[in-house]
Structures are given as structure tokens and as C-alpha cells.
Amino acid sequence: MTMILPHIERLPGYAQGEQPPDGTQAIRLNLNESSYPPSPEVVKALQSIPEETLRRYPDAKCDKLRTALAKHYGVREEQTFCSNGSSEIISLVMKVFIGPHGKLAIPDPSFPLYHSVAASYQAECIGIPTRDDFSIDVEQLIHSGAQAVVLVNPNAPTGLLLPIEDVERLVREFAGLVILDEAYIDFAKTDESAVALIARYSNLLVIRTFSKAYALCGARIGYCFGNEKLIAALEKGKDVYNVDAISRELALAALKDHNYMKTTTDAIKRTRDRFSRQLASQGFIVVPSHTNFLLCKPPARSGCPTAEELYDTLMKQNIYVRYYKNPRLRDYLRITIGTDAEMDAVLMALGQILEQNGKKCDE
Q1: Residue 363 clears pLDDT 70, i.e. is over it
Q2: Is the bond preceding 20 in cis, omega lying within 30 degrees of 0?
Q3: Distance CA 341, CA 134 (A)
Q4: 3-state DSSP of the chain
Q5: Which CATH number covers residue 115?
């Protein structure tokens, strides 16, 4: 007799990116981690945390960080929520706003965690196909018939950005809740954040994270902005003391050193654009990216390796990139932007693989 709920037992689970074995010297370009370390101010904050911080419960609402975030983004504290990574907010959205047998619409392809979490709460996640070029059809999302819509912007894993005017149209015309996931917005070529829209629309929740641009994946700090009623509902649904005392201090230090974040994200964007051009020169089709990764399709010449074959070959060389079996993505690789040296190593490896297959490739 099993004690596991049937719908949980049936779940395939979220397909995470491969992790190299401990001690392996590898180039990790499959999890969209930052290629730069956190701000030196974060390191200082970590080294200065007193022992009392470890034995005392933190304040339940993460007040200091909430205040700092509200000030930084020009919103009110009552419109701000802090979480154990943005993944906690995704779970809370299902728990608080969607519920069992509820319906959530999301472009396809997009961040698959939303599908996994929805299924764990017995909600239905409806995939709305993107166009052939992966651009998002706002009209279909508006008329999806779901009670909520998720828009990851820039989208993952495509890297494409939906312009702010289209985002606002979605929020204005959709009858339910719009969850806007801006995990990668700091890597966009233009400022298209929708945080300011929460002042005009009560049905908008904007999710952000310290994992990407601020290089704090390991600290697990997320946050979001929305109407006061939405934020109050999240507070009711969350676990008590959901953000640990150490992580919130690191996030505060990172936020205060905004100039460092801007410097590193600008550097990543330069490397991304250079790497994109170099991939194209090798015959890859590269989807224009506003993120810290690229979605690219290997050369389609007869006899050349497929995306899956390239993935396997790179893995054997301890170069970790991402491959999806999703029908829309199986011809593509997603490659996180690392340091210039790491991207040069990837280009060299790809060039050698393609050259070795050159005898089979019909130019």
C-alpha cells in the first residue's frame, strides 16, 4: 500500500541539467549561472555575519530586504514579496491562485518548471504554441480560456524578448492573473521591465531573482511585485521564515552594489553577441537573445552531427550545455554565456567536431 498521492507518483519530475561529478574540471554552460562571481560586497557581508544570526529566527516578512527592493524599484513595501528563490513563488502561485483543476496558460516552449509545479498541484498547464520563429502570440494567450497566464520575458529557453507594449496589452486584455517572470530581464538589450505596470494593473505579478544577474544561485533569493492583495495572499500561503537570515544579507549587499551587477551583465552581453556572431560564422542558426544564454541550431548540412550528437560529444569533453527532447527544441542546443575564455574553448571544440565530420558533410 503506497502512501504517496497518485498524481505525485505519476509525475516524471522536473528534468534538471546535468551536473559534473564532484572534483571534475568542467565548463558548466547548462544552468544559466553567472560567468562572474558575486559583488565583492557580498563576500564582505558573508564574512561579517555574526554567530547570533545563525541561532535567531529572522523576521518573517524579510522586512529589510523588502524595504530595499521597494525603494530600488520605486514601489511600496506592501507590493513586494521575498522568497526562497523564484521557484518558491512559482509554487505559491499554484497553491494560492490556481489550485487543483485550475488552468494556467504558458507559451510553448518556455520554462518547463511551470508545467511540473502545476502538475504537482493537480492544475492544468496549457501550452500555447509559439510561432515558427519562437515569437509569442499574445492574441492566443489572451483568448486561452485559462484563469492565469505565465509569460517568461525574456523567454527561456528561446532568449526572445516580448516588447513592453505587447506585455501591457496582455495584462490589459486578459481577464485573469498575468504572471510575468523576468528572471533574465537584466540581460536584455533594452529596458523592457514591466514592474512599473503594477501601479496600473491589479492582475499583474512580476517575478524577479537574484540568481542570474546578481550571481547568487546558491543563496536562493527570489522576489516579486504586485497589487497589495496579491502580495498579502502570497504571505498567507508561504512557509514561515521562508528566506534564511544569511541569504537575505547577501541579497542586500548585492542590491546595494547595483553598479557591479550592471558592469558584469554588460560584459556578459558583449560576450554573448560576439559568441553569437562566431556561431553564425560556423553555420549555426542562432535565435536572437536577450538573456545570458543562446539557443542555436547546428549546421543542417547532410552528414553533420545533430544537436543531440553535439551535446553528447561536448559532454565527453567535459563541456556541459543543455539539450531538450521537446519536439520544438530537439534540433537546438542552449548554451549559457560563460567567460570569454570558456566561450573560446566551446568554439574550438565545436569547430573540431564539425571539422572531423567534414568528410561526411556536403557543403
Answers
A1: no
A2: no
A3: 30
A4: CCCCCHHHHCCCCCCCCCCCCCCCCCEECCCCCCCCCCCHHHHHHHHCCCCHHHHCCCCCCCHHHHHHHHHHHCCCHHHEEEECHHHHHHHHHHHHHHCCCCEEEEEECCCCHHHHHHHHCCCEEEEEECCCCCCCCHHHHHCCCCCEEEEECCCCCCCCCCCHHHHHHHHHHCCCEEEEECCCHHHCCCCCCCHHHHHCCCCEEEEEECCCCCCCHHHCCEEEEECHHHHHHHHHHCCCCCCCHHHHHHHHHHHHCHHHHHHHHHHHHHHHHHHHHHHHHCCCEECCCCCCEEEEECCCCCCCCCHHHHHHHHHHCCEECEECCCCCCCCCEEEECCCHHHHHHHHHHHHHHHHHCCCCCCC
A5: 3.40.640.10
- Is residue 7 in some structural domain? no
Q: Is residue 12 part of a domain?
A: no
Instruction: Return all residues near 148 (Cβ < 8 A) that are at least 6 apart.
Output: 93, 97, 98, 102, 103, 104, 105, 176, 177, 178, 179
We report the CATH number of the domain holding residue 325 as: 3.90.1150.10
The domain in which residue 351 lies consists of 18-37+259-356
Q: pLDDT tens digits, residue range 223-281? A: 999 999 999 999 999 999 999 999 999 999 999 999 999 999 999 999 999 999 999 99
Please state the domain count of the chain: 2
Where among 256, 273, 291 does a domain terminate?
A: 256
CB 286 within 8 A of CB 280: yes
pLDDT of 286 above 80: yes
* Residue 2 included in any domain: no
Q: Are residues 61 and 80 in the same domain?
A: yes
| Pairing outcome for strands 27-28 and 319-320 | parallel
Within this chain, do residues 303 and 236 fall inside the same structural domain, yes or no?
Answer: no
